[in-house]
UniProtKB/TrEMBL annotation:
Species the sequence originates in: Ceuthmochares aereus
Any one GO molecular function term: Hsp90 protein binding
Pfam families: Metallophos
Protein name per its UniProtKB record: Serine/threonine-protein phosphatase
All residue ranges annotated as the Serine/threonine specific protein phosphatases domain in the record: 97-102
Origin: domain of life: Eukaryota
High-level lineage: Eukaryota, Metazoa, Chordata, Craniata, Vertebrata
Amino acid sequence: LHPRYVLNLLHETRKHLKQLPNVSHVSTCYSEEVTVCGDLHGQLDDLFFIFYKNGLPSPSKSYVFNGDFVDRGKQSLEILIILFTFLLIYPKEVHLNRGNHEDYMVNLRYGFAKEVMQKYKVHGKKILKMIQNVF
């Protein structure tokens, strides 16, 4: 994805998240279900498998992602792009909780910062800084 679009997505995501309370309350009734998952750790195939088994987020399909989206795997940035896009499209159905891997020092140690810099050599520092602002 072109860096301009990545930065725009990050800006809109940050703007949306700043409007939310620190604690989100997600409720269900008997006719609805919520898929709760976490620890994707940059494994895009795992996210695709979850969507294959449970369906994509939609007004009738809510998700709670319990952090640790990045690090270790090779496609952490793609996971963030997908999750942030669904968050903006379905703000009432997609909920993102921050994990310990959504931290700058952890990103330096476990590979996410390096991944961003490799994928976006020219704009990597700016993108990484904006991601840290979103986190």
